[in-house]
């Protein structure tokens, strides 16, 4: 495990779920965290918790990655010593709805595309030139099994995660000849707020997604993200597909009898 102590790590979507778990995993190594998300209160609470538990400083960045101008302005005006980002965890993302394409909500489509694809691109475009210039950096994109396998009623969400996979592959090709690394960590079922968001707060429906099986936890995904980031400089884990034992495909899950 290569030390990343004092390296600057920016995590988008850091206010909950996988993003929060990643922040904690990196803080435990002594890295410096830029916590980016829209919910300032949650970010401030997390920053305080990281300081208390790990003794690390965090920079709270209230950011909507869907807003191109805001993203560019905020990321290009980070103060010292936060401006030179070593590791970017592109985690911000969401799913909305579970409908047949011809019955889907265009507003839902736009929200997923704006966050999962365009938001990831805006952040990446703002930060990667500095990594190339400094000859140091690592981009870790949080994808999904949905980027490998389309499932019924998942149409546009699956398309956005397939885009993340393609962007990760294309970025790695474009960075060939530089020491900047690119990884995509693609989990299956993870019990977070994901299903609550997808079903707009229908908790009963969300809970059924994980009923009678053991899903991944955010910490499971964060462990893999940290593993990618702490390999020797000559090692690039380009793609990791991470599934719970109770899952063998996008729609293939084993549910135990209640």
Automatic annotation (TrEMBL):
It comes from the Bacteria. Keywords: Oxidoreductase. The keyword Transferase does not apply. SUPFAM superfamilies: NAD(P)-binding Rossmann-fold domains. Its EC number is 1.1.1.381. Gene3D superfamilies: NAD(P)-binding Rossmann-like Domain (3.40.50.720). The keyword Mitochondrion does not apply. One of its GO terms (molecular function) is oxidoreductase activity, acting on the CH-OH group of donors, NAD or NADP as acceptor. Belongs to the short-chain dehydrogenases/reductases (SDR) family. This is NADP-dependent 3-hydroxy acid dehydrogenase YdfG. The gene is ydfG_1.
